[in-house]
Amino acid sequence: MPQHSYRLQPYAGVQSRHTCPSCGRKRCFTLYIDEIGRPLADNVGRCDHESSCGYHYTPADYYRDYPYESNHPFRAQSTIAARGLCHKRHTTVPCTIPWQFIEKSVRTDIRSTLIEFLNTIFDPGTIETTIAQYHLGVTKDRSIIFFQIDTDGNCRTGKIMKYNEKTGHRIKDESIPFRITWVHSILKSRGILPPSWQLTQCLFGEHLLLRYPDKKVALVESEKTAVICAALMPAYIWLATGGKTQLGDKLKVLTGREVIAFPDVDGYAVWKERLSMIQGVDIKVSDYLERNATEQDRQDHIDIADLLLRTATAQNPPAIPQSDTYPILKYFAPKHHKLLKEFIEELDLIPVSIRKIP
After folding, report:
1. pLDDT by residue (tens digit) across 314-323?
2. Residues 41-75: b if buried by 16+ CB within 10 A, e if exposed
3. 5: how many CB neighbours lie within 10 A of its CB?
4. pLDDT for residue 228
């Protein structure tokens, strides 16, 4: 069989440029294609925004992360190439960011817009605890920084994101620059990090695994979701992959842990398939959101945090009868009881306290 190779797709009009799976910008993502023009996967490619995004996921990376993809006709040749290209990455200590940049950005005098939104939901103590645990940073323009800190306590990078402080939604208006950028990209552009510095991502919140060795782990897609769920249910370690397709080698850190995954409403099928094929890691994929989401929820692409916040902030009528099985349900409207029972059973939760979320 002849040797095959992949290359970045040549420009052939706007149809040949796609939405970046990392920064979300449209018509800036170039896919890797094979010799007859077939893309390897929808997340294998390079973002044109090298300084502000820097996403570059090669075929070598893909076959390292998904060695089970034996159905691809060029797997054998590509895997050989992938092993050669990735050997250095496996034997080299990942590049990191000096801790001083985390210390400077985790501040109490400036609140990011996302924290301002969360401040309308949670009490100050919960907010402070969450900021401290996840080392949530803030920029001068009040964007939030989600630092990726690994189990060795090293910072791999920080994702900088803009949110609406009234709605808590991520700002997606393309006329607003730097809606998503990265700490390492900024430091490289300023000459603080060398040109040879290479990004190797880890799970958001990964550093908490060593701090809480006995806690169960809950895995979600977005960093915002992990932060909100951690504030609502601190009995679990809430980690985020950073996106629907960000699955692979970085999940190996979960080996030996009891893990339940909560994909966004449009990601259940993808996570169910891919997580079942990752060897050495036992992850249960919850269909809680899949079963309880409405058609409007699917159109809105909600996640588990959206559903929980909507339930928790609902208006509660007075004199709700108490449930014998779950006394905590008396604080919620009857229409939410079935939903909450399922979630309590899904996570094996033990309610310890209750307070009103305004």
Report:
1. 544 333 233 3
2. bebbbbbebeebbbbbbbbbbbbbbbbeeeebebb
3. 12
4. 92
pLDDT at 72 exceeding the cut of 80: no
The Cα 279–Cα 72 span in angstroms is 19
Q: How many CB atoms lie within 10 A of CB 7?
A: 11
Residue with tokens 């502000």: 52
Spell out the residues 6+ positions from residue 186 whose beta carbon is closer than 8 angstroms to its own: 160
Domains of the chain from N-terminus onward: 7-91 (no CATH), 94-201 (no CATH), 203-313 (3.40.1360.10)
> What pLDDT does residue 298 have?
86
Q: Report pLDDT digits (tens) over 295-309.
A: 888 888 888 888 877
DSSP 328: G
**Amino acid letter for position 205:** G
Strands 29-33 and 45-47: antiparallel
